[in-house]
Amino acid sequence: MSECLFCKIARKEIPSAIVYEDDTLLAFKDIFPQAPVHLLIIPKTHCEGLGDLTPEAEAAAARVPHLAAKLAAEHGIQTSGWRLISNCGADGGQTVFHLHFHLLGGKPLGGKLCQ
Rounded to two decimals, what is the model's pTM? Predict the structure, then answer.
């Protein structure tokens, strides 16, 4: 999708603080971090969310947990703990409708996930 914010970031039309990139995945720092480490991991191919997986997006998404663990280690939160979240749909808190995963850590995150 040409107007999708994350597609534009993946195409490098919008600058971002990229921490990882390969042929199918991109990870970058969230511009409104909710924790000391707050990275977004996206498939480069457009897919609105987990409920709309295409075969290409599914293959990329299957690699996300491994990449998240690697990035957690690189950012010094592997031992202290981290969280990996994908919000699905408006009621689930999704605001950008391009499949993405939040990698959060660097402070105690607590047990409460909703208000």
Answer: 0.94
Contact criterion met (CB below 8 Å) for 98 and 86: no
Chain centre distance of CA 74: 16
Choose, from 46, 75, 100, 102, the residue flagged as catalytic: 100
Radius of gyration of the chain (CA): 14
Strands 25-29 and 18-21: antiparallel
Helix (H) or strand (E) segment spanning residue 64: helix 64-74
pLDDT digits (tens, 9 = 90+) for 30-62: 999 999 999 999 999 999 999 999 999 999 999
Question: Is 100 noted as a catalytic residue in this protein?
Answer: yes
